[in-house]
Amino acid sequence: MIQESYDLFLAKLLEKTGRGPDATIPILQGIQREYRYLPQEALRRVSELTDISLPQLTGVSTFYHQFRHKPMGRHNVRVCHGTACYVKGAPNVTESLRSALKIADGDDTDPEQIFTVQDVFCVGCCSLAPVVQVDDLTYAYQSYKNAPETLKDYLRLQESKSVAGKKSGHAMDRSSRGVAGQIGICLDSCCVARGCGRVEEELREVIAQNRLPIEVIRVTCPLMCETMPLLEVHLPGQPLIKYGRVQPEDVKGIVERHFQPGGLVKRFTTRLSQTLEKMVGGDIWEPPMHFPLNPRQPSMVAFYGPQRHIATEDFGVYDPVDLVAYRRHHGFKALELCLKELKPEQGIEALKKSGLRGRGGAGFPTGLKWEKVRAGKGEKKYVVCNGDEGDPGAFMDRMLMESFPYRVIEGMMIAAFSVGADEGYVYVRAEYPFAVARLHEAVRKLTEEGILGENVLGTGFRFKLHIFEGAGAFVCGEETALMESIEGKRGIPRLKP
User: How far apart are CA 406 and CA 4, in angstroms?
Assistant: First the structure.
């Protein structure tokens, strides 16, 4: 009976992942997502149904920190022990959680099997250290004192979501009333860790209760991390208005400041409430830190004024996975130029003249690298995007993948066309769940629109892109170890050719 259960699940999983050795890690990840660990019987059945031996499955699964061979709790608590978090007290956070959950020495799961506590490498939120991830939700500024409260907060949040899902909510027919404006909020990893998720929930609740024709949009990183949570109010024909360090209790005042409630009764009661508040408490609600579109504060002008945004162009403007918005801001124009007007050699020559260099530290000329790859022998070539950063403070790749997935993919496609590749991989750290999700969504939309696939933009160029999720090995940031991992092996660096 148990084997039949495994067989039903594995049949669907293997159809998606394939049965070759290169599918080892995706297969193991699929099993663990389903069963919360790697049952030995499931691994044995995989070895019988695929070209992957049981010793290989065992060797790979014991190399990567993500995989478990014993059951875990319902929720996975990952305490970041990257350099920034470690020096700010991450070991104390782990100790506090283990003590509060009464986890025995040598174990990592509480007796009730609710939480499993694990130490992990950098989660890419170094400015908010120490950081804890509970499932896919990130909490900032953890300490020995507040860490146990974080788990209680997470359970309350899950309960509130469950209750909210059972409610019908407040319906609003935007088609008949139109949209009076938009409120943008960033929901990248750092933003959520600073509380943007709670602010968004409160914002949607206030809008629903007041039946307001407001569209809430998720925007790319606004590059103002010190002001998070940040709300951006877009009103037709008016300058953008920004509110920084917003708390859930501030949301109602911000909304009422810019939008009138729907219905005469609601408008009357809102005005009455504001009048009574002024009579009893003096002044009515005052907004939190307020930043106009072109801030005049000398410190902000000095910092933001000289900046020229290239990789982060159009930041904070549109939803990261809104393909229509990306194309409206000249997205895929560069790819179209390369495919329709330039030969690969011309594109490489333009790149060499531009002086563009790698961002990984060595500063190797990008045009020269592409030229060497194009001239290299071999019928099959790949383009690999290394998103497995783990150095202290180095989370710029996470931000780019979370906020600008289409830009990353467009760059890869230009590279593929230039060097003669037709297939690519984005290798993303397991600790970056938002980046993984948004890249998958971007690939799906691009495939549906014919921008990825067998006939890119109708030019005959073909490109297939895989999103490969790492399994928790710091060493896989090294390129040869990364390629070993993609091939389904232990991520051990190898000698370069």
Answer: 41
